[in-house]
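Predict the holo structure. Ligand: coenzyme A.
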Amino acid sequence: MDTMVTRSGLDGVVVADTRLSEVDGERGRLVVAGHDIERLAGATSFEAVAALLWTGALPQGDAAEATRAVLAEGRVRAFAQLAEGELARHADGMDALRAATARLTAHDGFDAPARLTGAVAVYAAAWARARAGGRPLAPDPSLSHAADYLRMLTGEVPDPARVAALEAYLVTVVDHGMNASTFAARVVASTGSDPVSAIVAGIGALKGPLHGGAPGPVLDMLDAIGEPARAAPWIEAELAAGRRIMGMGHRIYRVRDPRAAVLEAALARLEQAGVANGRLALARAVERAAEGALRAKYPDRPLAANVEFYTAVLLDAVGLDRAAFSPTFAAGRVVGWCAHVAEQRATGRLIRPASRYVGPAPLA
Ligand code: COA
């Protein structure tokens, strides 16, 4: 294992070789299986990117259709195992997702990545429906994964502009190097455990606000600020109170997260299609104010917008309730988790990092 000492201590320990994605924090570049994220998001279907991560190549012709069919079957199978009562018990969508996914049998003879990707979409949508007082909707295998997710979640036939925006989002978050949830999933996979257990571990890690739980709070922040002119004083007051600005900063990026730009562009397209929520101008003003205030407070540590910042505004414009944001993140990231689980299992190697003992010496 290589090590790289950062200001946080022994961060950046290399625990795996991967062909799946690379994050260049200095230049703000994300490459997914040989493709810049800017080229994939908004231009390639979620199914095609799933196939890219699971097989190593973008599918052509019949292969693209086959991926769409296998994901649809994954949704149908997941729906058959849905325990409605279990979902409704949970106030938090990530808790519901964890519990529902954990009920899946470890082996049912069907393609594990498609089954798990189908399951996360179906359970996230069913939980959001239950929360709004509705019954879960069965998947429609004739629809694309993104369109069906939106339909199952909102109960409405989704319009193409919203589907395109959601699909761009799901593709944007599909994989991101050795982030915390991917690492959690890989650690479980490295023990020889099953893919369901690994994905449940990923869901648990993604739930936290320092990882996938930030977009809801970003929207709360925009609501609290209300108008662009109030952005700077509001941000200053938050920092003075010692609170973090949600959607800003990243452990790896030293420049703006490239996914923020991709999602900002998807949001602008949605506004052009006349479907957006009018929050783009406010979001841009808050981002500018936050970047400036953070630069003044931490001149040596660049802190810029991360993926969660525009996720919040985009998913809101798509028509999702903020409580469904983190489960929707999981609906995209599960594709990457599955790819990492397979890659890790193929090595047959246990991940066993070390800790540094700083406790008391034993009594003589
Ligand atoms: N708002 C205010 N201050 C922030 C900040 C933010 N969003 N992000 C980092 N800082 C501060 C830290 O508190 C630290 O200050 P200190 O030295 O006085 O304690 C300093 O900047 C350096 O932070 P650093 O150690 O480089 O950050 P990190 O790598 O530990 O944290 C995050 C990375 C993502 C956890 C952090 O930026 C954060 O909490 N962001 C908000 C939550 C969020 O958007 N999460 C989604 C991530 S994709």
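The chain has two domains: 4-211+323-347, 215-318. The CA atoms of residues 3 and 13 lie 5 Å apart.
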